[in-house]
Amino acid sequence: MRVLMFGWEFPPHISGGLGTACYGLTKGLANNGVEVLFVMPSASGDEDQSAVGIIDASDVEVTETCKDVRDFLEKVDFIRIGSNMVPYIGPESFSELVEQNRLGQIEDYRMTHGQKYKFSGKYGSNLMEEVARYALVAAEIALRHEFDIIHAHDWLTYMAGIAAKRVSGKPLVVHMHATEFDRSGTNINTEVYDIEKRGMKEADKVIAVSNLTRNIVINKYGIDPAKVVTVHNAVDFQGFQSLKVERGVPEKIVTFLGRITYQKGPEYFIEAANKVLKRYPGVRFVMAGSGDLLNRSIRRVAKLGIADKFHFTGFLKGMEVKEMFAYSDVYVMPSVSEPFGISPLEAMRANVPTIISKQSGVAEVLKHAIKVDFWDIDAMADAIYGLLNYPALPQMAVKNGLEEVNSLKWDGAASQVRDIYSGLI
For residue 308, what are the domain limits? Predict the structure, then answer.
């Protein structure tokens, strides 16, 4: 079985959990006898190709004879894209970005035989233009390669998946890692919503990363429940080794690690930290990440008078993330809406007791993480205090949590995905 898979990022160059999930799933599929051709906008050449064949969309010569991108989109009945978009920022930052980058409708990109498009593969101000051109290149790739099924990850690649389906006639699976409601709450961007809805309507099967996400897909997008299947994410611990680090401070450390955006609930983490510090001063809080709420979070910490006990590290990647877990005594994921959430699994594998919000997909599969409502800062503070102050609690959480996450393998998730492929083929 051969899959033509479309993604936007792939390790080692990633900005969040999407690339990590794609990597784990493709390795699991390889172990289940599935060959994967993974298309990404811009490959760096240092991607691990032991389990996949990487196709760099920037290296593909397009021979489509359309005059421009608009013509192509109309030919395959795509929705019209009218503005630039960034996937993981809040509405305020998006408004500022639009004001700074008023480009209006997508400009004409005249095409000649053998033309290549150079994609940044980033999440910049011309993202929508790249998404549209990526779809055009996807059609070209689909014409050149033999495959049995198409798999598109997240809204950025749904148009590419539809284009490949139109020219090949092969079944399309779309993977919903996060909905626009997860990213933006009730203040959704309608263009992204329309792309998500169109992608799922056109798909032969929709994979949701949790039952939480599946319910949103069905109730908010009107997708037929019969074609929406939940496959929980997993985590890849191959080559994992515990790190030993030397602390520069004597206090215990409580960590938040993720995008500092509405979706991840950083403000609730700060309020809980303030409550804990009034009862347990021998602790420091770390917020590792970046995002549109960073400056507001810094100001709130200063206003609460806890800046001497609160640290902002900026975005961490690779070994820096592993080191941060090694420093941590407690990990907290207070997400307002988390489709799944791989970071708690990584924390528990690193022997860090973990607190997660009940509004997360990972809460469906974890029994040995403490679960609280994201908005309940009193319960969150109590949970943090208990793990810091009563040694038996973290000892039990670490022992049972390690056994639990070790059972969540990508091979198992990939086996479910392979069965979905087989059913469609």
Answer: 252-406
